[in-house]
């Protein structure tokens, strides 16, 4: 078997002072943080598409990277990618992976051939999983790249496209069951509109809900107990994606009585595209008890679009991990690097270095967030801000003992309403002390 990441690894923790680029400086898998090892807080996953399929292309140019797993035979290439993936994950000590159906197997001439190819490759993946103990964090199906999905998948104006989408999701759920996936993801690729005046939005959303119900029913039928996840995104590729952000997606799920079956897979770059910070999206999901999993990356705010960079902003990651810890963790979810190397980082070792960068940055985030929690830095600020609700009239309000008439009587008798400053600048400055 060919070695793809030659002379590299195993990648070990060497601490922040190491000069070795091929070492973890902050991610120390077995170090106990808030009572459990880092590797359990940070269930990192490698994304097949960005790591083994992406070759550095952008809108202005073709591949910048050459990968030796590529051959003229698509099935051989797919098999080589399995070897490369497990070699990389083992060398890095990464315990999970994620993929779309199209990432792992060639399309063949028709759906039948595609599904056969998937069966062959998933046999191979299953074997490797058994040998290594590496797990499938989630899989999904790509219902957006093929020409047939030009007008959407479940939201397409063509019933045959809806049917092919259903068949593909059925296969996706079967793959998840076969590989014991912890989660199953729906990202609404082209489920949105290009131009509102030619779109029946209510009809399209009802059809998306229909296919999700079918998926829930089929998962039950085959005994799949993976957590179902929806991944919000506000735009790209459509002008307006229906699953705009966490709040919009929860409203959609609740309207269609699907909220008990789904949690959210939140992606940092999607949050910023929606005009939110990433921790905002995590907090919204947590409010609904729907914080499922993370697609870790960074957007480039100057460019604006979905650049899917590796996450290296320690403050952002600290605030994100704070939300995760405050919500009690991610359950079956994990931290999938939905991130790709820059076009200029075309060397094979960049795949490893970029993941080290992302893992170290999240480890910094975890350590900083744990310190915030241990020292109750933010908890104390929040507690103080809302203290008027812990006694007197405030307590009565949150205990639902008041109404507009009783509050009106109370308010009329008030001489002065006193409020205090937030002192936000100094607390923002002190927060920097927690960033590792
Ligand atoms: C697209 C995106 C997808 C999903 C899975 O922006 O994030 O890769 O994570 O389909
Ligand atoms: Co994503």
From TrEMBL:
One of its GO terms (biological process) is D-xylose metabolic process. It holds the Pfam family AP_endonuc_2. Its main location: cytoplasm. PROSITE patterns: XYLOSE_ISOMERASE (PS51415). Keywords: Carbohydrate metabolism, Cytoplasm, Isomerase, Magnesium, Metal-binding, Xylose metabolism. Residues 112-279 form the Xylose isomerase-like TIM barrel domain. Its cofactor is Mg(2+). Homotetramer. NCBIfam families: PRK05474.1, xylose_isom_A. Belongs to the xylose isomerase family. This is Xylose isomerase.
